[in-house]
Amino acid sequence: MTKHLPTVILRHCPDYEPERIERLAVEGLDTLGLQPHGRTLVKPNVVASGEMFPHAYTRAEFVEGILRALKKRGSNIKELAVGERSGITIPTRYTFKNAGYYEMARRVGDVKLYHFEESTQVEIPLYHQGRLRDSFYTPEPVARADFFVNCPKFKAHPWTTVTFSMKNYIGIQDDRHRLIDHDHALNYKVADLQYITQPQFIATDAIIAGEGRMLTPLPYRLDMMLMGNNQVAFDAVCCHIIGVDPMTVDHIRLAHERGFGPVDLSQIRIVGDVSLAEAQERAVNFEVGLIRVEEYFKDTNIRAYSGRPPSQTDDYCWGGCPGALEEAIEILRVYDASADAKIPPMHIVFGAYEGTIDAKPGEKVVFMGDCATYQGKIGEHDVHIESLYRDRTELNPETYKVDDIFKKMLKVEQKFLGARKTEVMRMAGCPVSVAEQVLMLVKMGRTKNPYLDPRTSVDFVSCYLSSRTRTALSRIFGTPYQRSGPSVRGDARPAQNLPPAGAESESTS
Ligand code: SF4
């Protein structure tokens, strides 16, 4: 009876030895009774990579072991591929290169690498109650995958508490589609993304996990490789390992409530050579880093203030601008050890803030994001900041524009030029991305600009140009958008959420 329950496998794995990872993955596939077939696609987490971000991504050796195992147990595999869209504004070609994915793919042989921002985007209709919009776009390789393997990194996350298997889906959208709803509704977005597809096999790099943050996490040795066949059950077990109640992580709770899988341990089969209790012992001090922005910057020159975002239910924007500022300062600290000292006393305001802003003469006050509003005195001046926020129902993914990093640099330059004589300025956007907030802090503190760092900038520009050229060519000669049809998936709906025959989509909530 228990063998029919969703299964999570906990294995001891003390190093990044591809042969060991391959053996464990082969045993995992056998335990789960899985046979890779058809178009087999591996989705790692390569949000950022290289020497500046050593613990942010699924290591190449790990993916190598998984690919070898898929080959070994595969039957009639038509295509074996790895696909990802890395962090917003960073070309996936750049993160793949710095993560060693190209060499790894050559070592394994017959592996295709997809850079999802260069792919045709396929529209997947949504029908379930409570959805954010009526359809999503996802890269064609995801929509067409027959055997989908989710290969995340085990990490904390400042926006969604954790990033395990479900949250790794943020990388199955390109920037235009990813930024929409990347605000206080981020957990809802991640839960909605589950309808695009569900993985047959999950294998997580938890050998060196990432603690506290997402792009610059602290290394935390768990010495484990975790595998499973149900995404909700898998993430629930990961939560239990680090002492988090999975029902407090909204995207896991929502997917569970929508029928994607269990969170109750009595409904999950846990097997392997590491018991849950032993895994919990290994993770006893693991920090998730879900810290409000006021608290995060408490002992720095930055004073943060946060008011409500435009939401009926949330009093803090966990998925948007405040968390992006936390990631931004951590990136600057990596590139410039004296960044904190260089940034002068300043004030950053989020949401509909109604308290006082204690700015001294000469200190900059930045209203961050479209939803920032304020009415009151700053020093001697009356300040009135109006909301620029547009309701999400007005945002069309097919026409939504995202600036690349060089346009963002130009815009931030212009913004500071325009605000040089005033202490109050506004950064517009929903969200204001990590990259823009990095650039804002660079200007404010005259710190080193990570995008112009000589160690990485030549490579970055070369990958950027290559990616832009290929994307432009594919949009001229290919099909940028495609409606879903019988040949694509988009079928990951629990039975109770299937659309009634002939039904029109219900209106968005
Ligand atoms: S502008 Fe920023 S803080 Fe406001 S809702 Fe959008 S993402 Fe959240």
Model description:
The protein is α/β, with parallel strands linked by helices. The chain has 2 domains: 2-282, LarA, N-terminal domain (Rossmann fold, 3-Layer(aba) Sandwich), CATH 3.40.50.11440; 293-391 and 402-451, no CATH class. It contains 16 helices and 18 strands. The strands form 3 sheets. Strands 1, 2, 3, 4, 7, 8, 9, 10, 11 and 12 form a 10-stranded mixed beta sheet that branches. Strands 13, 14, 15, 16 and 17 form a 5-stranded mixed beta sheet that branches. A hairpin with a 2-residue loop joins strand 15 (364-378) and strand 16. Helix 1 (18-32) packs across helix 2 (60-73). Mean pLDDT is 91; it is low at 486-490 and 494-509. Iron/sulfur cluster binds next to strand 14 and strand 15.
Within the CATH hierarchy, at the fold level, what is the topology of the largest domain? Rossmann fold
Give the overall form. globular
Q: What is the SS-derived class? A: alpha/beta
Overall pLDDT: 91
Regions with little confidence, pLDDT below 50 for 5+ residues: 486-490, 494-509
- What is the domain total for the residues? 2
Distance between the termini: 39 Å
Secondary structure tally, helices: 16
Sheet with the most strands, sense and barrel status:
10 strands, mixed
Beta-strand percentage? 15-25%
The radius of gyration over CA amounts to 23 Å
CATH H level, superfamily name of the largest domain: LarA, N-terminal domain
CATH architectural label of the largest domain: 3-Layer(aba) Sandwich
